[in-house]
Automatic annotation (TrEMBL):
GO terms for molecular function: beta-galactosidase activity; carbohydrate binding. Residues 1033-1313 form the Beta galactosidase small chain/ domain. This is beta-galactosidase. Belongs to the glycosyl hydrolase 2 family. Its EC number is 3.2.1.23. One of its GO terms (cellular component) is beta-galactosidase complex. GO terms for biological process: lactose catabolic process. Pfam families: Bgal_small_N (PF02929), Glyco_hydro_2 (PF00703), Glyco_hydro_2_C (PF02836), Glyco_hydro_2_N (PF02837), LacZ_4 (PF16353). The lineage of its organism: Eukaryota, Viridiplantae, Streptophyta, Embryophyta, Tracheophyta. It is an enzyme of class 3 (hydrolase).
Length: 1331
């Protein structure tokens, strides 16, 4: 198949390009919403792909020429790319493997057998003096990424060496790569290969991904210096010398990602007995909701982090924590690091003291930087700025004498971004990836245990490295040793890794168990395991505490003893097998765990060591459009979670992690996607315990590279990054593979990249028990087992789920962007998910606002991007969580809890149906109650007798037989609401007894909807009218006074019993303080359109007509015509009437006609200001928390009361906030009970209200909540219409159409009247005025 494209007068042909690997024709038609028969659209899309490929190829050549200083040739090439020159002719005419020589350069197109794209070879024609002939040296700029079995090690003076790993993920030549040259496997088994040794193979097998000497020389020239060492075999002193002189190469070479770092494995415990293993897990599992009370978010978090680090190794005799205060020196670049600072005798007495773990920016060194897609340094991969902030650490330690004769290992849980470590002046290792462990053996570098000398550990951490290009997540860039540092002691032969696999039978009644165990020994020979024995024991975790107490000094009976598989004599992996009948399965609802203990014994049966962990038995599988857990299509009710603490940054505290999980479980969240990197090991243990489904994600995010794929070595396509990317994915899997909570492996965040396919294949082969998740462009390819788009609209996910060719379930990787006042429309997503087969939930973005504590003029407040002097930042884009940094829930959490709730109550024709949507839990552990309300007042309540209802079953209650039926039918309320509440009956690990799990309010029909009483008016007028200049005063002696301005046509003041209520008159309002979602979309945003249309807080009304008429003895009527203007532009006309009654009531009737060319309006309503003393707000409507038209399902209708201060929602960036929806009436009163009443009137629908000390302009002006300045009064809004807040995302205008306010005519009425101490606000509302 051949495709052609034209661009800028040039046509290029690419042969054998397989676009179906990227997207099938059917999927393209679906996503683009075009007719499948429209071949023109398909060809246009392919043309676009070809154009992109062509641009990439030619730009690569251009950059290559320019990098070698051949600017004349580069300029010629640039000319050829756009003109009718020889290269254009080549592009038109050459076929596969044809070439063209132009000005000494040879260009050849060659189809790559496994690549998505055709390879392009560029070679220079050279005259060979010896042969007297012209020869060509080709330089492979594009290599076959998927057959990579080795990577390059650079040497000084352009000397090359190929270094192969025995366990390279894609070296399997027996399957996909069976047509590779047979020497591939042979070479892959060798340690190193010289250039001469590899050359014959390279010439025969062009698929090998080995850059030429020319390209390597170019890299070395650009990097100025190379390390003259072998990365895997060099003596440590050579490394020291190279690093001391110039070690820039190490953190700017994507092929150099680690040195002397041990292979990834599960966390080690290194127990000495089986009993010790079991007691350790009894203590470690003793956590519950009450532990969350110890979470701290201020300066106390520094010591809490150190306490957690110490607690996590408690009970482990061969583990020591090095966490604590270290000597620390911050330098602006590696070149400023003191010479030989790692030597034992170096004087660090003038250095600072820094807690470890910590991020140094959180302790006054350097500045935090918050970005989204833009890198915080110049884009030039793999290079980083020479001004690269660097931290030097030193710590003294001694080893316990009990560790004599054992091997010593140094373990870093994580440090950001790249670092070297020395022990006693000897470099022991190097590592990258700031979210995964690194481990180095230091046995030979420590002082003897009987020595009086302190060992000195020194670490140098660089803020930026080539690995930073892979870590472009939308969060804070923070540096340093931010997780624990520990010392471990292991016997000479020890368990280095183990993998628990449970294969459940079809009916889930039994499980075949397997454990793969790997050993490490300096003396062990391949295949010889006769001197040691391996056992694996499984214990039921829930019963361990009681069994250990009952069986003192003995080992409880295990439920399974697994034995070595017959015939197994493997070197690296030993398989143990066993069988368990009727296992207790793990799920989010029932997180049953077992304790696995792997025991290594000597030939006499003595225990050498034990390793242990918690495991769960569960089955994750795929069916038609469904992801199944234990055979059930569980629904993912999830959030994306960053590791974030407002005081200590990326450092973890156990109580704070528990706080997150308790809040999640209390609000019906059952799943977490680790965004966008592996998190602390303890997090996974807690997810296992609390029952939370996890998608584990590697520390890979290259979104900032998407617009820079022309670079000669970018991380998206550059072949030299494959080892780093695969290492990050495989290391995550190896560390976390035993956690039951992990149901899926992610391939990284944001976008499709060539290297990811190799990672997907490796993970599938390594762990077939889980599924693979990949979002971005990957969600439309076969890389992922689930379709997992981001921010897809409701109608699109429904259409995708109904697409006949799509057999995978759809789970939203990210949705409902929670930036500021957001999360509108989330109920629409869940209406679709609950009713559409193939939709299985999603993950809200994000869990927590990533605000940091900062001192603002002596007071600590939340800070965001730009507040630390960071010039490259995304401002408050990091504030997109549903909880504040201190985990106080946003109002939107109520909506999340509601749509996620597991019990649904539905009013049918003659009954109420209660459905248990759990998949494993019955209703046995829950209590049901009911509350009957009439006009917002509780009539009665009681327990609801619901029998034990099975999962996915329902219970029906006939209305006539219900306990509230008689009360409902006999009550005189206009509105009757029934609320069904589900509570936790017994305390669990995560939820306290009595906690409300679900609450649904149902509107019951009422026969009294129109019942009201008429206010009696005096037959003789008692209303006085007085005109003073432009003011007309209407009053009733010793009762009330109303002032009306004849120049503006507005009510200017209102007094009750001589007390002033209004400080500013009642006027129309059409604008709101901008939310983050209002601003999203640049020129297409609502904010931009409002600005163009002159819609802002300065809109004013101008009087065109005014009249006063006495309607009757008890009523005066004022009619006005107003024009709303701003900046000289007429926006709308308003006809309104004020009816003033002798009772003190005022009826305001409005008819608003906007210009039809206006955009959707923010609001239509009135605004007025009252004295500060009237700060008690009562209302009958939805509440008690903030809600808006598109986020109100969880807010029940009732009568509520709050202070004005409590009405305020302190979003970190101020915006429209504090609103309440569907309000019938509102009252503002002072301590004496005096005040002002306002309500809807006539046929007007319920209104949106707010009351705040902060006016519109103040909210718009302030960039931080703490900057807000209280006004001299209270600003009150009564809105006939208020636009939704949106939330599908925050970068496009995405308020759903039904929640927009189009520029059409609107009519509405409000009623105002004074409140006296004896007034009943509901009775006022139920009364009506004579016509």
């Amino acid at each position: 198949m051949e495709w052609f494209c034209k661009e800028e007068g040039m046509e290029v042909r690419f042969s054998n390009v397989d676009f179906s690997e990227f997207c099938s024709h059917e999927e393209f038609c679906y996503w683009s919403k075009v007719d499948p028969e429209d071949e023109d659209a398909w060809e246009a899309w392919v043309t676009w792909q070809s154009r992109r490929i062509r641009r990439l190829r030619l730009n690569e050549i251009y950059r290559f020429l320019a990098s070698q200083g051949r600017m004349e040739e580069a300029t010629d090439l640039l000319h050829e790319m756009t003109q009718e020159g020889p290269l254009s002719q080549l592009a038109r005419n050459v076929g596969a493997s044809e070439e063209f020589i132009h000005k000494g350069w040879t260009f050849r197109l060659d189809p790559g057998p496994y690549c998505l794209y055709t390879r392009l070879h560029v070679g220079e024609t050279i005259f060979d003096k010896e042969s007297g002939k012209m020869v060509r040296e080709y330089d492979d700029l594009f290599c076959n990424l998927q057959s990579d079995c080795a990577y390059l090690d650079y040497f000084k003076d352009t000397e090359l060496s190929l270094v192969c790993e025995k366990n390279w993920p894609v070296q399997d030549t027996s399957r996909k790569y069976k047509d590779l040259h047979p020497d591939t496997l042979k070479y892959a088994q060798k340690d190193t290969l010289s250039v001469k040794e590899i050359a014959p193979f390279y010439m025969r097998q062009r698929k090998a991904p080995i850059p030429s000497t020319t390209y390597a020389a170019y890299l070395i020239r650009k990097m100025k210096v190379a390390i003259n060492i072998s990365l895997f075999r060099s003596p440590a002193d050579e490394v020291n010398r190279a690093i001391s002189h110039n070690y820039r190469m190490a953190w700017e070479d994507p092929s150099f990602i680690k040195w002397q770092k041990r292979n990834a494995h599960v966390p080690w415990r290194s127990h000495d007995t089986i009993e010790g293993s079991l007691k350790y897990w009894c203590d470690r599992n003793n956590v519950k909701y009450s532990n969350a009370e110890h979470a701290v978010w201020n300066d106390d978090a520094v010591s809490a982090a150190l306490e957690s680090a110490a607690q996590w190794i408690k009970g482990l005799p061969f583990v020591r924590s090095l966490s604590g205060y270290w000597r620390f020196l911050f330098t602006p670049s590696p070149s400023k690091v003191p010479l030989n600072f790692y030597e034992c005798g170096f004087n660090d007495s003038n250095w600072d003291s820094l807690p470890v773990p910590s991020n140094w920016q959180m302790h006054g060194f350097d500045s935090p930087i918050c970005t989204n897609t833009v890198y915080p340094f110049p884009m030039d991969p793999p290079f980083v700025p020479s001004e690269n902030p660097t931290g030097c650490y030193r710590k003294n330690f001694r080893l316990p004498k009990e560790w004599r004769g054992r091997r010593i290992l140094l373990h870093f849980e994580a440090a950001d971004s790249a670092y070297f470590a020395w022990v006693n002046g000897v470099v022991v290792g190097y590592s990258q990836d700031g979210r995964l462990p690194a481990e180095f053996e230091i046995t030979d570098y420590c002082h003897p245990l009987d020595s009086d000398k302190d060992n000195v550990l020194a670490v140098q951490v660089m803020r930026w490295s080539d690995g930073s290009y892979l870590e472009d997540q939308d969060h804070w860039w923070l540096s340093g040793i931010h997780r624990d540092v520990i010392l471990l002691s292991k016997p000479q032969v020890f368990i280095t890794d183990y993998f628990f696999i449970a294969n459940l039978s079809e009916d889930l009644s039994g499980a075949d168990l397997k454990v793969e165990v790997k050993l490490d020994s300096l003396k062990e020979k391949s295949g010889d395991v006769s001197s040691v024995a391996i056992e694996a024991l499984l214990f039921e975790s829930a019963t361990l505490p009681d069994k250990l107490a009952d069986e003192l000094n003995s080992i409880p009976h295990s439920v399974v003893d697994m034995k070595i598989k017959p015939g197994d004599c493997g070197f690296n992996g030993h398989w143990l097998e066993g069988k368990l009948e009727n296992p207790k399965l793990w799920s989010s609802e029932q997180p049953n765990l077992y304790t696995l203990v792997v025991v290594l014994k000597d030939s006499s049966g003595n225990v050498i060591e034990c390793e242990s962990c918690q495991v769960g038995i569960r089955k994750v599988a795929l069916a038609n459009k469904q992801m199944l857990v234990n055979g059930c299509p569980v629904v993912i009710k999830g959030v994306n979670r960053h590791e974030h603490h407002p005081r200590v940054g990326k450092t973890n505290i156990e109580a704070c992690m528990i706080k997150d999980l308790v809040l999640m479980k209390q609000n019906n969240i059952n799943a977490v996607k680790n965004s966008h990197y592996p998190q602390h090991p303890r997090w996974y243990e807690l997810c296992d315990l609390f029952g939370v489904y996890v998608i584990d994600e590697p520390n890979i995010d290259t979104r900032g590279c998407f617009s820079h794929t022309h670079l000669i070595d970018d991380p998206v396509y550059g072949p030299h990054w494959i080892s780093a990317i695969l290492d990050r994915g495989s290391s995550m899997v190896e560390r976390d593979k035993n956690h039951a909570s992990i149901i899926a492996w992610s391939l990284g965040n944001d976008g499709y990249r060539n290297h990811i396919s190799a990672m997907a294949e490796w993970i599938r082969e390594r762990d077939p028990t889980r599924i693979i998740h990949h979002d971005g462009f990957g969600s439309a390819t076969n890389l992922t087992d689930i379709v997992c788009p981001k921010y897809m609209r409701v109608e699109d996910i429904v259409r995708k789920a109904n697409y006949v060719y799509e057999k995978r379930p759809l789970i939203l990787s990210e949705y409902s962007h929670a930036m500021g006042n957001s999360n509108g429309n989330i109920d629409e997503y869940w209406d679709a998910i609950d009713s559409t087969f193939g939709l299985q939930g999603g993950f809200i973005t994000d869990w927590v606002d990533q605000g940091l504590l900062k001192d603002f003029n002596g007071t600590m407040h939340w800070a965001y991007g730009g507040d630390f002097g960071d010039k490259s930042n995304t401002l408050n884009f990091c504030l997109n969580g549903i909880v504040w940094p201190d985990r106080t829930p946003h109002p939107a959490v109520h909506e999340v809890k509601y749509v996620y709730q597991p019990f649904k109550a539905v009013l049918l024709q003659d009954r109420i149906q209660i459905k248990n949507t759990h998949y494993f839990d019955t209703t046995e552990a829950f209590e049901f109650t009911w509350i009957l309300q009439g006009d917002g007042t509780i009539i009665s309540s009681g327990l609801l007798d619901v029998p034990i209802t099975a999962p996915q079953a329902h219970y029906d209650i006939k209305l006539e037989c219900s306990p509230w039926y008689t009360l409902w039918k006999t009550c005189e309320a206009n509105e009757v609401y029934l609320t069904i509440i589900t509570k936790q009956k017994y305390s669990s690990r995560s939820i306290k007894e009595g906690h409300i799990i679900a609450s649904t309010q149902l509107s019951l029909p009422s026969d009294n909807a129109s019942i009201s009483h008429l206010i009696e008016m005096p037959k003789v007028s008692c209303v006085a009218k007085e005109v003073v200049g432009n003011i007309i005063v209407f009053s009733k002696k010793d009762a009330w006074e109303i002032k009306l301005n004849t120049k503006t046509g507005t009510i200017e003041n209102l007094k009750v019993n001589g007390k002033t209520l209004l400080t500013k008159g009642i006027s129309l309002c059409f604008y709101r303080a901008l939310t983050d979602n209002d601003k999203g979309g640049r020129s297409k945003s609502y904010a931009s359109k409002w600005k163009v249309a002159s819609i802002d807080a300065k809109i004013s009304t101008h009087l065109e007509d005014f009249s006063v008429k006495e309607q009757s003895d008890f009523c005066w009527q004022i009619s006005t015509r107003l024009v709303a203007k701003n900046y000289g532009c007429t926006l709308m006309t308003i006809d309104n009437k004020y009816s003033i009654y002798s009772s003190g009531d005022i009826i305001l009737e409005y008819h608003v006609i906007p210009k039809d060319d206006l955009p959707a309006l923010p609001r239509i309503g009135v605004v007025f200001h009252v004295e500060k003393e009237f700060n008690m707000v009562s209302w009958y409507g939805r509440g008690p928390f903030e809600c808006y038209p598109d986020r109100k399902s969880s807010a029940h209708v009732g009568v509520y009361e709050k202070t004005v201060m409590d009405m305020h929602v302190p979003y970190i960036v101020p915006s429209e906030s504090g609103g309440r929806s569907d309000v019938r009436w509102v009252g503002l009163r002072n301590e004496d009970g005096m005040g002002l009443f306002a309500s809807i009137y006539g046929g007007s629908p319920p209104m949106q209200i707010s009351a705040s000390y902060y006016g519109l302009e103040e909210l718009d002006r302030s960039t931080h909540n703490h900057e807000l300045v209280e006004g001299d009064d209270i600003e009150v809004h009564l809105d006939h219409k208020h636009m939704g807040v949106g939330g599908d995302d925050s970068w496009t205008p995405c308020v759903h159409s039904q929640f927009l306010i189009p520029p059409v005519a609107y009519s509405f009425s409000f009623r105002f009247c004074p409140i006296f101490p004896f007034s009943s606000l509901q009775e006022i509302f139920k009364s009506h005025l004579p016509q």
